[in-house]
Design goal:
Order of helices and strands: HHHHHHHHHHHHEHEHH
Strand order of the largest sheet: 1-2
Radius of gyration: 20 Å
Structural class: mainly alpha
Number of domains: 1
Helix content: 55-70%
Number of strands: 2
Distance between the termini: 29 Å
Largest sheet: 2 strands, antiparallel
């Protein structure tokens, strides 16, 4: 899979697909969406925490993109045009259900504390590795919701998907310097919380994923029959890394991002279903000569 945020990205194929799609090729339109669907979905999932909301958010914004596609003038890079629409929708759309329940680092810390600790036996810890991983991914993703929307999106793009400040600024219509400033504040707040609370970062902290697993199951945050976070994937985000060279100012900062990049890159592509549902729409048919 081509990393659409990578330095080797080229929009030549995208622009050919746009011409063919507007000329009446449903296959070209589906292929165009397929090239970007997974990346939009995976950023959305980190942004809103649940698969259901990420799916809704992805489909909402892709419908908006489809209806505006004839306005693309081919003079600019398609990636910039597309993701400005996508991320503007992410930042300014309605608040999703988890955004309403996870509002600050303090409230999140209190919620974690209320679950308490319960040690697993050696046999349980060995047998429950998938559930423990689900807790770890879910908890870390929930931490991101403690950031405000702009900080959250900048952190996801920069630290998880390795989008540099120049490209990140272009996609969010910010200067590279402003992008870096937002990132610095997001890292400060998130890393302070993790350093003071999370046992993955600071071994002196009592909070441990195995000790929290039974509490997460009891509270309904982990569904034993259908894992929400450690599922639906075929690779890790780190396998799609933009740069394989170290690009961090401090080694201590790298370990935070590494923890997030070890999370799944989800395979939830529903571009074909979206196109099928939309082909009955008269406005879409007129735009694409279907």
């Amino acid at each position: 899979m081509e990393n659409v945020f990578g330095t080797s990205y080229s929009d030549v194929e995208d622009k050919k697909l746009i011409v063919n799609a507007l000329g009446g090729s449903k296959a070209a339109l589906e292929h165009l969406l397929k090239r970007h669907y997974q990346f939009i979905y995976n950023v959305a999932f980190k942004f809103v925490l649940t698969h259901e909301d990420a799916e809704d958010l992805t489909q909402e914004v892709l419908i908006k993109v489809i209806l505006k596609l004839s306005q693309f003038n081919h003079q600019s890079e398609f990636r910039t045009w597309l993701y400005r629409i996508v991320f503007n929708h992410f930042l300014n759309g309605k608040r999703r259900k988890k955004e309403k329940s996870i509002v600050s680092f303090d409230s999140f810390a209190s919620a974690l504390d209320r679950m308490g600790f319960e040690n697993l036996t050696t046999a349980e810890e060995s047998a429950w590795q998938d559930k423990i991983e689900d807790v770890k991914i879910g908890c870390m993703t929930a931490m991101l919701l403690c950031l405000n929307r702009e900080q959250r999106l900048v952190y996801i793009l920069s630290e998880i998907f390795e989008v540099d400040s120049k490209l990140g600024g272009e996609l969010l219509e910010l200067s590279a310097d402003h992008f870096r400033q937002i990132l610095a504040r997001a890292k400060r707040d998130l890393h302070n919380f993790m350093n003071n609370k999370c046992g993955l970062v600071n071994t002196g902290n009592p909070c441990r994923c195995p000790k929290k697993t039974k509490g997460f199951i009891t509270a309904g945050f982990v569904n034993e029959a259908k894992l929400q976070f450690n599922n639906y994937f075929v690779q890790r985000i780190s396998e799609l890394a933009v740069d394989k060279i170290a690009r961090y100012d401090h080694l201590m900062e790298e370990k935070y991002a590494t923890l997030y990049k070890d999370h799944p890159f989800y395979n939830r592509d529903k571009s074909a279903e979206l196109i099928f549902a939309l082909t009955a729409d008269p406005e879409l048919k007129a735009i694409f000569n279907l």
